[in-house]
Recover the amino acids of this structure.
């Protein structure tokens, strides 16, 4: 070899070694086993073994992308989660390998959840992506197969196979498959439960001419728990394409199409604990409702339910368990009356489910000792039927009727709804008209529940012994016609929007208020309550376009005209609320109320107007009012004692802003308490007279700086008294 080649080869070797040293490390799963199969009941913890092929000079990060049919902890709702991904950070599941190391300080893990719902087998594919300071391996996937080893049977209803083959369902959209499907259901009931698989893009028809529907079991023939799930085949783009649809049967044939409550012994749950979950997944349920119209519109078919769900009622202190049922990724439509009727002793969960054209309610709550939980739901309604038509389609309907008591005679029904869109009326109440009822300590929580303007109607009627909380919600109504809040024990609205509308009548009728409230009045058969509290925090009361610039109150409160009604001490509290510029009053009428920091925008209207309050004390508190133009107080026809508390600091109002009137009985017994200082700017040097509006303690400031103090409230028909500066 020539001498001049030796140094050249050395340099080449050094360059190769240097190139290897500066090459980016490769990140991969450090195991040859890229596919793992596990049973869900094993609740296995599976490490992922992420590693580099060489140490890096800087920290390396890589994201874990998760896909497949298995659900993670971020989807732990409905049928629930299948796994938890641990030892990662952030929403992108980021993993960090420190500089100089080849593995993370702690390896990420997959923990398999022992999901209580019997289901199809699940897949979990984990892929490495978005590396920083490293490159991806060509083989960057890791697959976990999760077997549901609790599932004793998997029966395709259109091809059950073996001895069950003679009971296969036609699923052709016309054949009555009631008997065949019930036989298969009974087979699973007697043989350990399992999963029914309904074919994609096909329709199974059921409901016999005599009204016989489907009886769903939560126990076997010996009374032991049994798990059964009904699943639409998700293959071949089969999202909710598997349909169960009712047949049209002769009129006056009563039925509950799918039922557990009246299914009878050997089917209905009764126990000291809740039942195993019964699940409906990826299915469409069609009640064939239009075939029965117009029978619904005259209420002749009010009790015809698509689902009737519940457990045996009883008085035993031991049998406090509920039937647990889940609707996950379903579509419930065209029922004759109720879509899903939740009756006594039932715990119902709805997730990513749609409801369309269910006249009395997509979800109806009737019974006691029950729960309704929903997330990511949509309710759709299409106008149909004779007037009042649109008002007859209800999205959510709660009616805790007196007979709907659960275990231990409880009427309690807890509701928790999150991320719900309502295109239909909303009716919530603890009883129907002329019926005594009690919420028995129920808790109803609404978060991000939005009602569309298509059906501008809501009714919160007699929420007796119910704690109702609504946050970031939107309601559409037309005051006394369809925006109605009646006799609530404790209701709080936070960051909610109330839209006032003209009615759906033809021609439209302008309501008497945007929101109509009754608290201590016997109204439409609802008994009054006492010590009720209705609170609005940071809410908006706005006028929809169809209401135009009509000057009506934002809230009209109807109070008892005499002292004989039993309701008393009911208060409305409003803080940091905003009112449409067209609002004539923020609050019209009422006995007890507090307005704190109201955003008042109508210079021609009054912040509050009180009239015809007789026989009991009137108590109003106004705090933190900043009003340089307009009016805020009009009080008239007060009989008996009346206390007005105006708690304001450095409040400035215009001349003649208030009316204290003596139209009927006078206010000689009224007492006005001023906290802070209220200055009325005269605008000139004209002295105040007995006709100048004022409340006790007001200061009337002339343009020349002289100040007169009101020592007797009056004006507008009742003489006021003003004392000037000492000379």
């Amino acid at each position: 070899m020539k001498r001049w080649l030796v140094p050249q080869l050395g340099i080449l070797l050094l360059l190769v070694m240097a190139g290897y040293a500066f090459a980016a490390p490769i990140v991969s799963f450090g195991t040859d086993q890229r596919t793992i199969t596990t049973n869900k009941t094993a609740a296995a913890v599976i490490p992922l073994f992420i590693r580099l092929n060489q140490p890096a000079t800087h920290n390396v990060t890589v994201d874990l992308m998760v896909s497949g049919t298995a659900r993670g902890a971020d989807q732990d709702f409905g049928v629930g989660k299948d796994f938890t991904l641990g030892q990662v950070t952030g929403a992108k599941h980021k993993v960090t390998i420190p500089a100089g190391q080849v593995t993370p300080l702690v390896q990420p893990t997959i923990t398999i959840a022992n999901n209580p719902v019997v289901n199809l087998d699940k897949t979990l594919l984990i892929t490495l992506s978005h590396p920083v300071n490293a490159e991806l391996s060509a083989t960057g996937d890791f697959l976990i197969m999760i077997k549901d080893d609790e599932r004793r049977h998997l029966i395709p209803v259109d091809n059950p196979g073996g001895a069950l083959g003679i009971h296969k369902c036609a699923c052709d959209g016309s054949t009555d498959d009631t008997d065949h499907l019930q036989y298969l259901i009974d087979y699973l009931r007697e043989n350990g439960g399992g999963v029914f698989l309904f074919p994609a893009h096909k329709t199974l028809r059921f409901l016999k001419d005599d009204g016989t529907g489907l009886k769903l079991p939560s126990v076997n023939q010996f009374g032991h728990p049994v798990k059964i799930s009904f699943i639409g085949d998700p293959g071949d783009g089969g999202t909710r394409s598997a349909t169960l649809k009712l047949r049209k049967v002769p009129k006056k044939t009563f039925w509950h199409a799918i039922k557990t409550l009246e299914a009878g012994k050997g089917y209905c749950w009764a126990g000291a604990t809740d039942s195993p979950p019964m699940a409906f997944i990826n299915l469409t349920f069609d009640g064939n409702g239009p075939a029965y119209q117009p029978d619904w519109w005259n209420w002749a078919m009010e009790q015809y339910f698509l689902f009737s769900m519940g457990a045996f009622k009883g008085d035993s202190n031991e049998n406090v368990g509920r039937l647990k049922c889940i609707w996950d990724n379903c579509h419930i439509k065209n029922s004759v009356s109720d879509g899903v009727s939740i009756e006594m002793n039932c715990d119902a969960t709805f997730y990513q489910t749609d409801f369309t054209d269910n006249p009395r309610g997509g979800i109806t709550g009737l019974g006691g000792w029950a729960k309704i939980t929903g997330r990511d739901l949509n309710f759709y309604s299409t106008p149909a039927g004779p007037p009042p038509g649109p008002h007859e389609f209800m999205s959510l309907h709660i009616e805790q009727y007196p007979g709907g008591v659960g275990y231990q005679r409880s009427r309690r029904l807890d509701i928790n709804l999150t991320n719900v869109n309502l295109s239909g009326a909303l009716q919530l109440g603890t009883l129907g008209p002329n019926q005594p009822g009690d919420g028995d300590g129920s808790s109803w929580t609404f978060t991000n529940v939005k009602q569309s303007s298509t059906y501008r109607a809501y009714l919160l009627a007699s929420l007796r012994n119910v704690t109702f909380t609504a946050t970031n919600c939107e309601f559409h109504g037309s005051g006394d016609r369809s925006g109605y809040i009646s006799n609530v024990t404790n209701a709080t609205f936070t960051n909610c929007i109330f839209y006032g509308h003209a009615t759906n009548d033809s021609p439209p009728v302008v309501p008497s208020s945007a929101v109509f409230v009754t608290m201590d009045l016997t109204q439409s058969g609802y008994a009054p309550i006492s010590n009720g509290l209705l609170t609005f925090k940071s809410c908006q009361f706005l006028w929809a376009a169809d209401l135009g610039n009509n000057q009506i109150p934002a809230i009209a409160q109807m109070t008892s005209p005499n002292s004989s009604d039993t309701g008393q001490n009911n208060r409305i509290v409003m803080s940091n609320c905003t009112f449409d510029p067209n609002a004539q009053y923020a609050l019209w009428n009422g006995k007890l109320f507090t307005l704190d920091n109201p955003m008042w925008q109508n210079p021609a209207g009054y912040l509050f107007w009180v009239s015809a309050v007789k026989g009991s004390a009137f108590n109003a508190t106004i705090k933190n009012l900043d009003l340089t133009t307009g009016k805020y107080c009009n009080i008239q026809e007060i009989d008996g004692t009346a206390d007005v508390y105006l708690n304001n600091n450095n409040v400035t109002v215009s001349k003649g802003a208030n009316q204290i009137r003596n139209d009927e009985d006078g206010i000689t017994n009224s007492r006005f308490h001023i906290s802070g200082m209220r200055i009325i700017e005269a605008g000139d040097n004209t002295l105040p007279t007995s006709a100048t509006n004022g409340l006790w303690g007001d200061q009337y400031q002339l343009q020349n700086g002289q100040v007169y103090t009101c020592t007797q409230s009056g004006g507008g028909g009742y003489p006021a008294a003003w004392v000037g500066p000492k000379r």
In short: The first strand starts at residue 26 and ends at 29. The two ends are 125 Å apart (CA to CA). Residues 603-727 form one domain. The chain has a mean pLDDT of 81.
